[in-house]
Amino acid sequence: MNDTNVSSTVLDRLAEEWDALTPEAQKAARYVLENPADVGVSTVREIAEAANVKPNTFVRMARQVGFEGYEDFRAPFREAIRRGAVSFPDRARWLQDTAKSGELGGLYADMVGAAIRNIEETFAGISAERLQSAAHVIWNSRQVFTLGVGVNNANARNFTYLASTGMKQFHAIPRPGSTPVDDLAWADGQDVLIAMTCKPYRTEVIEAVKLAREQGLTVVGISDSPASPVVLNAHLGFVVAADTPQFFPSSVSTIAFLETLLSFVIAVSSDEIVERVERFHQRRHQLGLYVEEPE
User: Fold this and answer.
1) What's the N-to-C CA distance of the chain in angstroms?
2) Could you tell me which residue ranges the HTH rpiR-type domain spans (predicted)?
């Protein structure tokens, strides 16, 4: 197992132990989950000050997840930093040049940089094995409910639309005029809920996740923090980076993740699905929905 995976495993253990942590230890754990890069470069006093807790809180938290103390806990994060990530000097040089290009050049560089960084950070923290597990759960389900409100409603509907070109069991919720909890009224252990929300977290999504678990659904949670209530209450949680210079959270990595998840679902599905997708598009050609390119 490489060092990046080791530090990710530590974060997974923190999330698993969340309910057993004291409120103060949860504050420390939340800081680690949301700022893992700080762990490798911070002393226990520095990170405690940043998290607004006492240093002993970090020591107790580290022991609760199986380490002798904070230094032992910090070791895999330090090693991950030592080994480093892939550098992109050409990209950095391009972004610097773009920032100098004019009045809006700085904003343009910030937006592009955030989009690229969000995608890199998102997929660096997600393993193919975990994606495959989610894909199998989705493929083997009776129905799949994809829940998003606000900007994530469009993301949920886009995912459902693409999935529905070959599969019949996908539903975007809330449906027009309905609520998420009403749309899940008759769902049970044969079904899957894919729920997504980013800070500030939407109450109706959190409540739907809790209800879904009570009804026996398998929950796939997508959010911008390992400490998000949607990720903590999911059977399979995925963290997407959503930082952006603008006011609203970015959807770039969420869309990229959903597209990748769908590709995994199709990969584990039956040959019939591929045939359905082909028939779906053949039908569209026959109905004249596409502009035919001249030969």
Assistant:
1) 52
2) 8-84
